[in-house]
Amino acid sequence: MRMAIVLVALSVLLSACGSSRVVREGGAQASTARPGQTVTVKRGDTVYRIATSNGISPLDLATWNNIAPPYTIYPGQQLRLYPSDGRTPTRTASTPTRPSGQSSTTRQPAATPAPPPVRSSVAWRWPADGQLVNRFAAGDPTRQGIGIAGSSGQPVKAAGDGVVVYSGSGLVGYGELIIVKHDDEWLSAYGHNRARLVNEGERVRTGQQIAEMGRSGAARDMLHFEIRHNGRPVDPLSYLPKR
Questions:
Q1: CB neighbours of residue 12 within 10 Å
Q2: How does DSSP classify residue 214?
Q3: What is the C-alpha separation between 191 and 27, in angstroms, rounded?
Q4: pLDDT value at position 6?
Q5: CB of 181 within 8 A of CB of 139?
Q6: CB burial string 87-109: b at 16+ within 10 A, e below
Q7: DSSP label at residue 238
Q8: d(CA 152, CA 231)
Q9: Distance between CA 144 and CA 83 in Å, rounded?
Q10: pLDDT over threshold 60, residue 242
Q11: 10 Å Cβ neighbour count for 238?
Q12: What gap in Å lies between CA 95 and CA 21, rounded to an integer?
């Protein structure tokens, strides 16, 4: 049974980057990790049902429990509601409580600073040509990757050597999606494709075309690209070559 992720759409805000502009594409639900808590799978349960009933995205629940495609779970199986290291996902800071007598002016929460990049063994390459229209923001579940605008049918290429571990359209909000596993720590994801050109289990090389750009699950022709380290999204711009 393939997992459906409750990611109705992607809400993203462009940072200043050349002639960049603000692009908004919807919203998404943040996961609420529950350190130390587990659930026992009952007959009829799915990753989607357990995740959404506990305030967690299906993708995070699958990652935290090492559930691989096609995301099959079994009655009696115990699933963690938190990452294996017990830490909760990074979030934006909460607005502090206003002391008595202080001005009631509302302040926006401060963004959590991005952690320094983790050294990667992957020789990353850009997966597509085009304008950067969406940027990563640490702690924001709606901005876990970057968006590269282009035209329908434009080549989407593997950003590094690896094996295709997912090729399908079962993760709602990503459209036609491909996920490549590069090693035990690193994954890359390619969403909103018009067509997928590789199958699960297929080995791909850096620069090999794996899909055609499209707008499945998006409002425009674009590629949504993510890099994940041990299941956690990191800023692709910290790893891709400067251009």
A1: 24
A2: B
A3: 16
A4: 29
A5: no
A6: eebebbeeeeeeeeeeeeeeeee
A7: G
A8: 29
A9: 17
A10: yes
A11: 15
A12: 27
Q: How far apart are CA 143 and CA 45, in angstroms?
A: 29
3-state secondary structure of 64: helix
Which uninterrupted H or E stretch holds 61?
helix 58-64
* CB-CB contact of 178 with 200 (8 Å): no
CA distance 11 to 22: 10
d(CA 146, CA 60): 19
At residue 47, what are phi and psi to the nearest 5 degrees?
Answer: -60, -40
d(CA 74, CA 121): 35
Long-range contacts of 178-184 (CB under 8 A, 24+ apart): 178/210, 178/211, 180/204, 180/210, 182/122, 183/121, 183/122
Q: Would you say 222 and 164 are in contact if contact means Cβ atoms under 8 Å apart?
A: no
Query: Whose structure tokens read 């990049």?
Result: 117
Q: State how far the Cα of 223 lies from the Cα of 131, in Å rounded to an integer.
A: 10
Largest CA distance in the chain: 64
Cα–Cα distances (Å) from 118 to 115, 144, 187, 192, in that order, read 9, 16, 14, 27
Asked if residue 79 lies in contact with residue 45, where contact means CB atoms within 8 angstroms, the answer is no
pLDDT digits (tens, 9 = 90+) for 104-125: 343 444 444 456 678 898 999 9
Could you report the per-residue pLDDT of 201-234, keeping only the tens digit for each? 999 999 999 999 999 989 999 999 999 998 889 9
Residue in the structure block whose two tokens are 């600073």: 113
Asked if 193 and 126 touch (Cβ cutoff 8 Å), the reply is: no
Helix (H) or strand (E) holding 204: strand 203-204
Please report which confidence band the pLDDT of residue 86 belongs to, taking 50, 70 and 90 as the band edges: very low
